[in-house]
Amino acid sequence: MDSIDNLVIERARQWHAEGHCVWLCTVLSTFGSSPRPPGSLLVARSGTEYAGSLSGGCVEEAFLAQLDAGQFTADAQIVLYGDGAQESQRLQLPCGGVLKVLVECLPVASAVGEHLDALQQALSRQQSVLRRVRLSGGRCLDFDPGPGATVEILGDEVHVRLGPVVTLILAGASPVARYCAQFATALGFRVLACDPREEAVQHLEGTGLSLIRELPSVYIARHGCHTNTAVVALTHDPRIDDLAMMEAVRTEAFYIGVMGSERTSANRAKRLQRVGGLSEPDIARIHMPIGLNLGSKTPPEIALAVMADILRVRTGTGGQAMRSVSGDHCYPRY
């Protein structure tokens, strides 16, 4: 999940603890153009107070108007927005898309509070959970969900898998890392930067990330990486970058990448095999050269190429990635 959806869970818990009935909405499926994927969340406590997003705005407006009209009194129901919706709930989306949304009415009750508390605590511990919502009433959490689709409708039950907030670990500080932090934050990533060098971390001041003043390899070895983690090494210093790669490949990170030209990357691969003992499959997991080939030269352009490739991998976009072939001179050195 991204930081927007994490905020939704926190806000739902807060409003419920204050004694408010809240409505929790989950995107179940989309057809056609849709800015928010299945699993996206929105919570509301009235027709004017809400957090999160289901679409680009049109679906939110329709839902809030319906909420004000008192249409959502059931414990849980599935609502269709767009072509094929019932006349009473018809909304012609400008993009021509169709959204199927689970709408839950969460009353002020101890069982609901316990459910939200357990969900928030699990996510704060970077755990993956499976919410089982029965349309006939009731919900529970499975703390060992295993692999599977983000959303599944199984008869009377809707299963929604929620994972840790997608995280970007910056292995070392640099001007490129600074711009990656800015782009990643805008994309809803949680951003961590690991670097013990006082003279280097100044590049990350004012970016709003969490700064960890130790070697990234040490941090990764101690804490690991969950499946919603991307690790990028952007310093061009093998003492930092190589060690970070050696630890990152031992984790479940969905993206691992390191900056450098084709020549630098080839030399690094040999070094990681010879010195680090990495296998061919380990090397294959590392995106090097990192990023899409956008002709990037400046730090913000390189950061854009890096984040674009991370997003490509995270969303499962098909097609062969265009690897960066920029020369060593294009990258800042430390």
TrEMBL record:
Ranges of residues in domain XdhC Rossmann: 168-310
Residue intervals of the XdhC- CoxI domain: 15-66
Provenance organism: Marinobacterium rhizophilum
Domain of life, source organism: Bacteria
SUPFAM superfamilies xref list: NAD(P)-binding Rossmann-fold domains
InterPro entries: MoCofactor_Util/Proc (IPR052698), NAD(P)-bd_dom_sf (IPR036291), XdhC_CoxI (IPR003777), XdhC_Rossmann_dom (IPR027051)
Stated name of the protein: XdhC family protein
One Pfam match: XdhC_C
